[in-house]
Amino acid sequence: MPTVGVPREALFQALGQRYTEEAFDELCFEFGLELDEVVREVDDATGLEVVTYKIEIGANRYDLLCLEGLVRNLLIFQGQLALPRYQALKPTQGQPQKLIIDGSTQSIRPFCVAATLRNVTFTQTNYDSFIDLQDKLHQNLARKRSLVAIGTHDLDTIKGPFRYQAQAPQDIKFVPLNQTRVYNAAELMELYSTDSHLKQYLPLIRDSPVYPVIYDANGVVLSMPPIINGNHSKLTLKTKNVFIECTGTDLTKTKIVLDTIVSLFSQYCSQPFAIEAAEVVDVQGQATLYPTLEYRKEIIERTKVNGLVGVEFTSAEIAKLLNKMCLKSQALNEDKISVEIPPTRHDVLHACDIYEDVAIAYGYNNIVKTIPKAMTIAQQLPINKLTDQLREQVAQSGFTEALTFSLCSRDDVSTKLRKDIKDIPAVHISNPKTLEFQVVRTTLLSGLLKTISANKNLPLPLKLFEISDVVVKDGSKDVGARNQRKLCAVNYNKSPGFESVHGLLDRVMQLLEVPPVQDKSQSSAGYFIRGVDDPTFFPGRCAEIVAYGVSVGKVGVLHPETIGKFDLGLPCAALEINIEPFL
């Protein structure tokens, strides 16, 4: 989930009240947020301590991604602020700003919307928040600008109508943001190929024969989305009128981004929460005013709210709780409530989202725990109960638990363990996005060795374990595969430490009440180990674990080549067993 960093002093000033760290943490919790971290730094210019609150929010709450949205929601939640009414208005004088979309853009980024914020008053704090919100939206909702790219411009430095079109890279020439000379688009691709911030966006258009660009009436370049804005129209603290354009490959997401920006920052306009609409003419010549800022209504039932949340509220009480969550509501009768969803709450997709807000406003801790009115009582799966019991005991034996990825590369389960992938019953991913995640793991060992490799600078010995599922092919199952719950432990030290993992094996078997047997002919009465050859382990240093006549795993010292392929330089002993047979 995204984390928003807000300066403590600016936050308290906007809230109109100072809080202790514990009190603000409690307020966040009540609203469904989490105060994740408090960062204290010294400002080099003033020498004073600057405190920043890192607040973790839900990934779908775009209206909380900046200081303005966070403060507005908290004040409404506390009943200190009335619900604002967002309006998209035509200018009182003259025509709205016009943006014309050319058909050439349809092959690369076909959609564009726009709006204007008039008579804005910027301070350094809200200016920084405005820029930071754009970056948060780019990373979150806009999927790293692949779906939407935002451009903000000083309207007083440019002149409409604006043209959105696509041109060959050599034909696009302008001074990019914070640069001093003119570049063409091809040169910009070279310039930003080493830029730590912008290089990640270059592949979005680099291989296209044409790049999108927005011009004003005088031919001044506003931006080349999704890469960079022009320096000519950049915002400053003196900017009064802000022209916002959002281009994208998804019209719905593009409108949501525009709605979010203008609704959150229209509070700084001379007429708060009033946004000047812009006219966008699409390739068919149809004109549409943006932003839409649509309000919609839902009718919910009191009985469903009470049944799903687990409370007994009247319609009026439910409406009052929803008003605290920025959802203007009123009771229609004893069983129905009318709820108005504002343009800031694009996360409300279904009535269940409204029910959730009722629970948040009431407080989850205030909901009384009751036994479900069902004919059965839930209980923990036996394999999970056994896993939890073993996890605690293995940790008490001196091993540290690790949690590794369920997906890995083909080499991790084959080549690095000195095995052939053809002999591994691995489930392969049909369209892997990266070489690191090609198959579902068939062993926990490779994940633990990779973890040790990433932490080999820590003091020795490194003793790690994991109890989790692996997946192997199984034609007898309807899905063609099955899970196995395994326990794996590794000892990494200057000496292999085989006695450590062997001792852990004995302890685990003792906990499972499986006695050791000396006479292998009596294997069905307990467990024993016997020598076996395995290419992953050192020759003559590997044993198979047999319990009740069934092979359940292996224990031994890893082969030097195995260790070397995980970039490790010290010997290592390992144990891996399947714990499902012991249920």
Automatic annotation (TrEMBL):
CDD domains found in the cross-reference section: PheRS_beta_core
GO BP terms in the entry: phenylalanyl-tRNA aminoacylation
Catalysis: reaction(s): tRNA(Phe) + L-phenylalanine + ATP = L-phenylalanyl-tRNA(Phe) + AMP + diphosphate + H(+)
GO cellular component: phenylalanine-tRNA ligase complex
Protein's UniProt keywords contain Cytoplasm: yes
Entry keyword Transferase: no
Keywords assigned: Aminoacyl-tRNA synthetase, ATP-binding, Cytoplasm, Ligase, Magnesium, Metal-binding, Nucleotide-binding, Protein biosynthesis
Subcellular location: Cytoplasm
Xref: SMART domains: B3_4 (SM00873), B5 (SM00874)
Gene3D superfamilies per record: 3.30.56.10, Bira Bifunctional Protein, Domain 2 (3.30.930.10), Phenylalanyl-trna Synthetase, Chain B, domain 3 (3.50.40.10)
EC number(s) stated in the UniProt entry for this protein: 6.1.1.20
Residues annotated as domain B5: 293-369
Gene Ontology terms, MF aspect: ATP binding; magnesium ion binding; phenylalanine-tRNA ligase activity; RNA binding
Cofactor list: Mg(2+)
Cross-referenced PANTHER family: PHENYLALANINE--TRNA LIGASE BETA SUBUNIT, PHENYLALANYL-TRNA SYNTHETASE BETA CHAIN AND LEUCINE-RICH REPEAT-CONTAINING PROTEIN 47
Family label: Belongs to the phenylalanyl-tRNA synthetase beta subunit family. Type 2 subfamily.
NCBIfam families noted in UniProt: pheT_arch
Subunit (UniProt): Tetramer of two alpha and two beta subunits.
Protein name per its UniProtKB record: Phenylalanine--tRNA ligase beta subunit
